[in-house]
């Protein structure tokens, strides 16, 4: 069964994993988010409860 032959696929998987973890991931993590989370507590808005007619 050719699916069990790890000869070409193991090298491709390891190469792509290393390329992602060593090259692509640090470049993506260096970007600063546009909407940074704020430290202040958010003002809680209380929504009115739904009044069911049958309860």
UniProtKB/TrEMBL annotation:
Lipid bilayer topology: Single-pass membrane protein
Location (main, coarse): mitochondrion
Domain of life: Eukaryota
InterPro entries referenced in this protein's UniProt entry, alphabetically: ATP8_metazoa, ATPase_protein_8
Gene Ontology molecular function terms on file: proton transmembrane transporter activity
Localization per Swiss-Prot or TrEMBL: Mitochondrion membrane
PANTHER family from the UniProt entry: ATP SYNTHASE PROTEIN 8
Name of the protein in its database record: ATP synthase complex subunit 8
Gene, per the UniProt record: ATP8
């Amino acid at each position: 069964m050719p699916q069990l032959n790890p000869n070409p696929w193991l090298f491709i998987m390891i190469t792509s994993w290393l390329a992602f973890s060593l090259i692509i991931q640090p470049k993506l993590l260096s970007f600063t988010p546009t909407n940074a989370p704020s430290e202040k507590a958010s003002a809680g808005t209380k929504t009115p409860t739904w009044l069911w007619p049958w309860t």
